[in-house]
């Protein structure tokens, strides 16, 4: 993705993205031979996280502390200070405090600043070391921040979160990390993934979501070739562009 594409996806301006680069909140991505920055899905996840924290009222220095390594301040500490400040302000800040109150339940161990609906969904998922499951969680966090998913979709996906069969699908995808793109396991796995999703989930996906040029390509680039082919087929089924 280019800078304009990642900015459109997350809902910020290109000037904001450049400012976050300047102050060190968003690392500079690699550049293409033509000099343009090439952003990945991981860059979009980090940018969306910064946007959500600033929307909660944190200053850029506080956001930097939250994103820092173990030497930084804990998110719970920063949010507690912000909550104390908001409590002294006018009534229109009540909605901001409600969102803050929901953050401690945002997910296992990470305290992600996500919506209450996504927090409830993530809380149902069992602990796992699956890299594919971790990618799925990051992508849900990004969709949550950009408004491309809502409570209706999360409610449907909640039926899958605690299903051991879903975790087995992630593990099958992990097994394709070093496989060739013509591996015979690709087709059956894509079909199994599509079949595992309730029909109601397809209806709950907004048809006018904030998809920008380059996003699908950047998402597939996060996976090894055989894994990317599985994901491509699943995406095609979800968007109605063809069979898995």
TrEMBL record:
List the SMART domains. HTH_MERR
PROSITE patterns named in the record: HTH_MERR_2 (PS50937)
InterPro entries in alphabetical order:
DNA-bd_dom_put_sf, MerR-type_HTH_dom, MerR_fam
Residue ranges annotated for the HTH merR-type domain, each copy included: 1-69
- What Gene3D superfamilies is this protein classified in? 1.10.1660.10
**Listed CDD domains:** HTH_MerR-like (cd00592)
Q: Per the record's keyword annotation, is Coiled coil included, yes or no?
A: yes
Which residue stretches, if any, does this entry annotate as coiled coil? Answer: 72-99
Q: Which UniProt keywords apply?
A: Coiled coil, DNA-binding
PANTHER family assigned to the protein according to its UniProt record, in alphabetical order? HTH MERR-TYPE DOMAIN-CONTAINING PROTEIN (PTHR30204:SF93), REDOX-CYCLING DRUG-SENSING TRANSCRIPTIONAL ACTIVATOR SOXR (PTHR30204)
The name this protein carries in UniProt is MerR family transcriptional regulator
Species whose genome carries this gene = Streptomyces racemochromogenes
């Amino acid at each position: 993705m280019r800078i304009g594409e990642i900015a459109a996806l997350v809902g910020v301006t290109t000037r904001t993205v450049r400012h976050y680069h300047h102050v060190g909140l968003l690392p500079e991505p690699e550049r293409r031979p033509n000099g343009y920055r090439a952003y990945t899905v991981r860059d979009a996840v980090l940018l969306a996280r910064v946007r959500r924290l600033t929307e909660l009222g944190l200053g850029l220095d506080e956001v930097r502390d939250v994103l820092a390594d173990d030497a930084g301040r804990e998110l719970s500490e920063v949010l507690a200070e912000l909550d104390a400040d908001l409590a002294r302000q006018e009534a229109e800040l009540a909605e901001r405090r409600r969102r803050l109150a929901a953050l401690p339940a945002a997910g296992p161990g990470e305290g992600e600043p996500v919506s209450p609906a996504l927090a409830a969904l993530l809380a149902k998922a069992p602990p796992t070391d699956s890299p594919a499951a971790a990618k799925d969680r990051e992508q849900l966090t990004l969709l949550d921040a950009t408004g491309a998913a809502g409570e209706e979709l999360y409610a449907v996906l909640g039926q899958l979160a605690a299903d051991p069969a879903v975790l087995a699908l992630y593990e099958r995808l992990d097994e394709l990390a070093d496989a060739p793109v013509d591996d015979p396991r690709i087709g059956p796995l894509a079909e199994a993934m599509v079949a595992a999703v309730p029909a109601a989930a397809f209806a709950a996906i907004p048809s006018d979501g904030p998809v920008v040029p380059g996003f699908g390509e950047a998402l597939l680039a996060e996976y090894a070739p055989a894994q990317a082919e599985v994901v491509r087929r699943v995406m095609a089924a979800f968007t109605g562009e063809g069979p898995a």
